Q: What sequence folds into this?
């Protein structure tokens, strides 16, 4: 590369951003914001209805202008100027980053904005990426956007195709025409969505990416629950605590209630009955639109009436690096152990057929899919813990942690329970809920690890990894609560493949195939983790692929379960995968 060319890699996501930055600039998990609210996790859409409207990114594609993509009087797609950032224009002119003629052109556009008058983009010249350098006349003629000389499909697509930071010239025309006012030509560079830190550029205003979503979007709070675009609002929560009295000990304040409940009483909120939170009357749609300000913020499961003060992480640091490594290996063993428990339980759920009643069918499909998703999430956590381990014990000294924990954290802090591969009974689901519960069970293991790592220099990436695992554990806890609600409203004989499922007998061919594929998965993961990234990436990808499909672990689970047996995993007789015991008790913890 010649010396005249400056090459620089700009981080475009959190994973890249975490590397090479100061601790002060590190990405943090903010209290109250679930993982799905992060920009890189957002569900973008070109039409209103999901988490943000991607079209709004182009509202500021040209320096100092805010534009709107709409239709002209003939219904053709057009670009209208909404406002000019005059203060920024004046500052740029004073700093000589734009010429005085350019500043005058912007001022002319600003002066022409008023009731009944609009500037519209009549011509756009620039580099349109795959379509090359073009001079486009707007509105773009209606045609199929195919072939070598194709045009962008519409005005918004044209603006989106413009190459970031490339020169662009716009010709603006006043509509309706005003005698004596000529067209205005503006030249500048295509604006960037993100700044140098990988965050949204400062040109975007708070709420701008969501301002064109369904209006009133609160109308969808009741209809769009769990998995649709409005899912970032809570469906159920613990009611708020009154300002006086030991109300946190009262039974009613520790039972869930619909977030949109009609009765907004604080002293005596309506709470879930034995049949669940759905028995509590909710606001009508028009009431939600009118009284949305009565809906409370929810943090840590509970509605809040007063300013939120994040709780301190109260855990005793581990005494030394050797103890930290022991705890990390146990945490990895827990992740692997619960993954096996979740897979066995998921494949114990009956598969619906054409004769299955609709309500049962929906519950069966949702429960299986969610338990499978959580099990895959535990596999990611296994990788995350091994990444943290490798930081403190880098290759070649690093030995991957792939032993299963024989004792898992119990439902109460400081207790353990044995690993149990069993069907998805109510008891099993309660154990799954308990181990994933926030600030309890496995979280207490990670709390001691995290406070220890926080005291170490240059560990911002490891801290973020651990906090993410803990935050996703809370999401798993919430998911299992839903799964229990879905399944236990039916009798076990209705939702399980059989009430008393047993493992396959000795000599079972399908069971042996499952164990072979499980062993192959551990082998591939061990090699990939030991090599580190990026050298181990091909093996890691192969390991992931070996979990899915008819030829993977998924197919082997199907075969065992379809024969009427409980799909279980045997201990692997290999010292690399030896079972992991809990760390020795610490009487001072």
A:
């Amino acid at each position: 590369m010649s010396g005249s060319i400056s090459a620089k890699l700009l981080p475009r996501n959190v994973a890249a951003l975490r590397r090479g930055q100061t601790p002060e600039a590190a990405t943090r998990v903010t209290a109250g914001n679930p993982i799905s609210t992060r920009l890189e996790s957002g569900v973008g859409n070109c039409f209103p209805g999901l988490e943000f409207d991607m079209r709004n990114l182009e509202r500021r594609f040209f320096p100092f202008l805010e534009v709107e993509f709409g239709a002209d009087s003939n219904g053709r797609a057009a670009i209208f100027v909404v406002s000019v950032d005059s203060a920024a224009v004046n500052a740029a002119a004073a700093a000589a980053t734009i010429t005085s003629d350019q500043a005058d052109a912007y001022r002319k556009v600003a002066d022409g904005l008023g009731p009944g008058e609009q500037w519209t983009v009549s011509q756009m010249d620039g580099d349109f990426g795959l379509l090359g350098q073009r001079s486009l006349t707007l509105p773009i003629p209606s045609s199929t956007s195919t072939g070598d000389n194709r045009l962008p499909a519409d005005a918004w697509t044209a603006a989106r195709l413009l190459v970031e930071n490339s020169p662009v010239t716009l010709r603006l025309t006043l509509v309706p025409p005003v005698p004596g006012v000529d067209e205005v030509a503006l030249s500048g560079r295509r604006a960037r969505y993100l700044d140098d830190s990988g965050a949204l550029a400062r040109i975007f205003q708070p709420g701008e990416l969501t301002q064109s979503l369904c209006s009133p979007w609160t109308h969808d709070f009741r209809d769009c629950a769990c998995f649709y675009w409005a899912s970032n609002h809570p469906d159920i929560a613990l009611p708020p605590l009154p300002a006086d009295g030991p109300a946190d000990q009262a039974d009613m304040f520790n039972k869930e209630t619909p977030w949109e409940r009609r009765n907004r009483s604080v002293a005596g909120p309506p709470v879930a009955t034995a049949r669940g939170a759905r028995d509590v009357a909710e606001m009508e749609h028009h009431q939600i639109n009118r009284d949305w300000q009565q809906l409370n913020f929810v943090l840590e499961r509970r509605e809040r009436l007063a300013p939120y003060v994040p709780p301190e992480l109260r855990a005793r640091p581990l005494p030394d690096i050797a103890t930290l490594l022991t705890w990390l290996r146990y945490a990895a063993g827990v992740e692997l152990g619960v993954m096996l428990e979740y897979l066995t339980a998921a494949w114990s759920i009956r598969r619906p057929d054409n004769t299955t009643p609709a309500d049962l069918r929906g519950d069966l499909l949702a429960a299986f899919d969610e338990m499978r998703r959580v099990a895959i999430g535990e596999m990611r956590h296994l990788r995350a813990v091994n990444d943290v381990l490798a930081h403190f014990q880098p290759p070649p000294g690093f030995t991957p942690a792939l032993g299963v924990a024989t004792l898992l954290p119990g439902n109460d802090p400081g207790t353990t329970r044995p690993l149990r591969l069993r069907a998805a009974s109510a008891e099993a689901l309660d154990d799954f809920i308990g181990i994933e519960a926030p600030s309890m069970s496995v979280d207490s293991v990670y709390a001691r690890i995290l406070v220890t790592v926080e005291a170490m220099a240059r560990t911002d990436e490891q801290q973020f990894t651990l906090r993410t695992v803990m935050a996703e554990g809370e999401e798993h806890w919430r998911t299992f609560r839903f799964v229990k609600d879905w399944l236990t409203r039916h009798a076990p004989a209705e939702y399980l493949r059989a009430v008393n499922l047993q493992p396959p007998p000795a000599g079972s061919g399908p069971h042996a195939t499952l164990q072979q594929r499980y062993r192959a998965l551990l082998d591939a993961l061990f090699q990939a983790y030991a090599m580190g990234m990026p050298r181990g990436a091909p093996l890691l990808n192969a390991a992931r692929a070996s979990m899915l499909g008819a030829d993977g672990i998924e197919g082997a689970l199907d075969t065992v379960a379809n024969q009427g047996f409980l799909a279980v995993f045997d201990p692997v007789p290999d010292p690399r995968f030896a079972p992991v015991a809990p760390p020795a008790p610490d009487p001072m913890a």
